[in-house]
Amino acid sequence: MKFILATHNPGKLREMAAILSQYGVEVVSPADVGITVDVEETGTTFAENAMLKAKAICAAADLPAIADDSGLCVDALNGGPGVYSARYGGEGLDDKGRYTLLLQNMRGQTTRAAHFACAIACAFPNGDELTAEGRCDGTIAFAPMGEGGFGYDPVFFVPEKAKTFGQLTAEEKSAISHRGKALKAFSEKLATYLGK
Description:
Blueprint: E1 2-5, H1 10-20, E2 26-28, H2 46-61, E3 65-74, E4 80-81, H3 95-105, E5 113-123, E6 129-140, E7 156-158, E8 163-164, H4 170-176, H5 178-195
Parallel strand pairs: 1-2, 1-3
Antiparallel strand pairs: 3-4, 3-5, 5-6, 6-7, 7-8
Helix pairs in contact: 4-5
């Protein structure tokens, strides 16, 4: 069974394919099936943005489409960057630029609590929908540590692991991450749905 994952991020594609392959699901990117859909993320929540993307890709491809929206929510920044995590600091910044800006904005903050949130949405050509969410709590490190992962991973510190996401192996990260938890919940719902 083929599902389209609404992302251009190779990291997300690898992560999703690894988890969903156990259900006999082949995960492909929109580019793999020759689709280019630019979905404006106008939602105010991760769940709304994920569903906007899933529905648009599903409609364009006439195949089941999975989309996720996730981001970093920092208590000291009133939950920001939140749904703007990927656009934090404007278009010109790369991952390193965004987490460097975050560290600058956190300078002098004693409250460093933060969490990653992930919402997954799946839209089917018949109109059916599945959704799931996950969360991972941690803190913002004082400096980047580790070369692994992507996005804010080098500055997101997980106290029980005493490491940042950037220092964890892919397996360690997916076992505790917001996306790992959302995918686990989603894959259970998907297994039930496919079993009907």
